[in-house]
Amino acid sequence: MGHGPGGDPGKPPAIVAVIDLGSNSGRVVVYRYQAGGHLQLLAGSRASLRLVRELDERRRLSQPAMDRAWEAILDFRAIAQGAGAERILAVATAATRDAENGPAFIERIRGRLGIEVRILSGDEEARYGFLGAVRGLPVERGVLFDLGGGSMQVSRFRQRRLTRSVSLPLGSLRLSDAFLKADPPSAREVRRLREHARAALEMAGVGALGKGEQLVGTGGTVRNLAKIDCRGREDYPITRLHGYELSRRRVKTITGLLAERKQKKREQVPGLNDDRGDSIVGGSLAIQALMEVLEAPEVVVSGQGVREGLAVAGSPSRPSVGGPWWALSTKRSSRRPTPRCARPWARPPPSSTSAAASTSSTATSTWPTSCSPPT
Q1: Radius of gyration over alpha carbons of the chain, in Å?
Q2: Residue 250 neighbours by CB under 8 Å, 6+ apart
Q3: What is the pLDDT, as a whole number, of residue 103?
Q4: Beta strand pairing status for 298-301 and 244-247?
């Protein structure tokens, strides 16, 4: 976390930049805080990082991977400054979290660029993903998944409050690299990946949706699946994906079509981002496995996630226990205590409303601690 030019550490910012060093890609978004907690997008950019690909070979971030991330941060900082950001909030997720040399790399960024990057724990990633993803969606209870390049966060919520979560190494790029060696992948590879994902989910205690619960999904893979589905529909002229409903049958169909194509042909599918051809099949199979385990007939796609959750949680109009993130000193460590809002996965008891309230009240992190998104 760092301060923009001329920023006062004790004053809440009007414009904030969020930098997200993900396992597959890096992003920056710049928002202006508006009345009522709304966010006005001022600028944004994306860079392909592929950190998890080189991490899985040696459990260390390779020098080329760190160089890519370094260049991306320089570009992202310039975009943030150009858009007038008064604060920069930077985070890293699964790949950096799992890397033996992740903390040393983050310290190098802080020391040389003055940007403090917080390595989010799996629980924190789930919590901020929930805050961003459910925002603006008419869902009261259910399960949210956030699928990135290196991990999948699965969270249960009730009355728009997070009650349980689990972080699993089921990221799209991680699974694709580990299981899908042939081009196109063989039927045996596809089957083994699905079986692995189902086993991991079941071992974590993820079970069928309850009555009245909905499945919500966020992350690049599910958004790309929605875009592919949307391109083939004449009855859906709206380009906005936030709230798009994607059936399990369509997920299975699209995943099959993607899996049977070679990567070069796959990359030409309308709606698929150019740089997702090598990871979309693994991620799609993970989503398909999750929907089967949950017995979910459809997934409601969210166009928002961790970055929006971080921005919302730090809004000046949304004070949090222990002080908002923008008031923290840049001298603090990149690793902070894991808040206890998100806990190991379990089916909530019928009286989980009070349980949700109690988990929220026990959070002790000095970062934003509320576990409920704005409506």
Answers
A1: 20
A2: 225, 229
A3: 97
A4: antiparallel
pLDDT profile of the chain (375 residues), mean per 10: 51 90 97 90 96 83 95 98 96 96 96 95 95 93 97 96 96 97 98 98 96 97 95 68 94 97 95 93 98 98 95 71 36 36 41 31 30 50
Hey, which residues does 166 pair with through a beta bridge? Answer: 154
Which has the closest alpha carbon to 308: 223, 219, 244, 245?
219
Domains of the chain: 2-121+306-331 (3.30.420.40), 124-301 (3.30.420.150)
Residues 178/171/293/188 CA torsion (nearest 10 deg): -20
List, in sequence order, every residue forming a beta bridge with 214; answer none if it has no partner: 142
Which residue has 């978004």 as its token pair? Answer: 29
Give the 3-state secondary structure of residue 216: strand
- Tell me which residue of 118, 129, 125, 132 sits closest to 37, measured CA to CA: 132
Residue 155 to residue 161: CA distance in whole angstroms: 10
Burial degree of 22 (CB within 10 A; 0-12, 13-18, 19+): buried
CA dist., res. 87 & res. 114, Å (int): 12
At CB < 8 A and 24+ separation, what contacts does 240-245 make?
A: 240/303, 241/301, 241/303, 242/136, 242/137, 242/301, 242/302, 242/303, 242/304, 243/136, 243/137, 243/138, 243/300, 243/301, 243/302, 244/300, 244/301, 245/298, 245/299, 245/300, 245/301
Question: How many whole angstroms from its chain centre is CA 103?
Answer: 20
Identify the pLDDT of residue 348: 41
Reading the block at residue 229, the tokens are 């589905």
Q: What is the dihedral of CA 55, 58, 63, 68, to 10 degrees?
A: -10
Cβ-based burial of 44 (10 A; exposed 0-12, middle 13-18, buried ≥19):
middle
- For 300, residues 6+ apart whose C-beta sits below 8 A from its C-beta are 137, 139, 214, 215, 216, 217, 243, 244, 245
Task: Look at residue 166 and give its three-state secondary structure.
Answer: strand
Query: Taking a C-beta distance cutoff of 8 angstroms, is the pair 56, 174 a contact?
Result: yes
Residue 142, C-beta contacts closer than 8 angstroms, at least 6 positions apart: 156, 157, 209, 213, 214, 215, 216
pLDDT of residue 233: 73
Sign of CA dihedral 208, 210, 214, 219: negative
Cα 343 vs. chain centroid, distance in angstroms?
Answer: 17
